[in-house]
Amino acid sequence: MNIKNVVFDFGQVIIRFVPEIMVSPYVTDKDDKDLICAVLFDRLYWDKLDKGTITNEEVLEACRTRLPERLWDVTDKIYYNWIYNVPEIEGMRDLIIKLKEKYGVGIYLLSNISHYFVEHSHEFSIFELFDKCIYSAPLGIVKPSHEIFDYLCKACNINPGEAIFIDDNASNIASAIDFGLNGYIFDGDVSKLEEYLDTILK
User: Fold this and answer.
1) SS3 labels along 140-162
2) Quick one: pLDDT band at residue 3, thresholds 50, 70, 90?
3) How far apart are CA 167 and CA 187, in angstroms?
4) How far apart are CA 156 and CA 106, in angstroms?
């Protein structure tokens, strides 16, 4: 295996995308917290956000039809601040730095993510470690479509057989492998991932 590029997913690989973590700073009542988590982070909206086919305002308006009025303002606040409540997965930043310094491989990001996050991604220093970041919403293409893997490889001048894609979603990895990339399903264990990468990059 001749790996020259490592491509990371974002949510649950670089950061923890956990609704409770994003809601807890603003809501203390458990029932209210559970309700907002269920409504605001419904895949019904986030799949469209990832593809760029729904606006922030449309998401919040839809949420208002499912939430009591007393929770409208705090839901708006949570939505516009969730990006600041996504802690990095411990050890992942150090691993990326190691991959760049020890092995000299290309480091890329491929994420299903909304326009809103993309517009604020410059505020996060971890993105400075990546050679290029590919986000779904501006493209209107989402994983696991082969089209987004094709875009990644062309935009980053990557030979699929010389890259490994790391994602927590088995369907995304299966599609990446079918496209021609190598794949690794991340289970949250950074040490195990590091050990595996050390093995294939030697």
Assistant:
1) CCCCCCHHHHHHHHHHHCCCHHH
2) very high
3) 9
4) 9
Q: What token pair was written down for 117?
A: 């996050």
Residue with tokens 């986030």: 46
- CATH fold of 5-16+87-201, please? Rossmann fold (3.40.50)
Nearest Cα neighbor of 6 from 84, 109, 98, 80 is 109
Q: End-to-end distance of the chain based on CA atoms, in angstroms? A: 10
For 113-136, the pLDDT digits (tens) are: 999 999 999 989 999 999 999 999
Tell me what pLDDT residue 110 has: 98
Query: What is the token pair recorded at 52?
Result: 């760029």
Domain boundaries, the chain: 5-16+87-201, 19-84
User: What totals of helices (H) and strands (E) does the chain contain, helices first?
Assistant: 11, 5
- Answer yes or no: is pLDDT of 1 > 90: no
- Cα-to-chain-centroid distance, residue 191: 20
| Residue bearing tokens 């996050």 | 117
User: DSSP state, 70?
Assistant: G
Helix-, strand-, coil-residue percentages of the chain, each rounded to 5: 55, 15, 30
Q: What is the pTM of this model?
A: 0.96
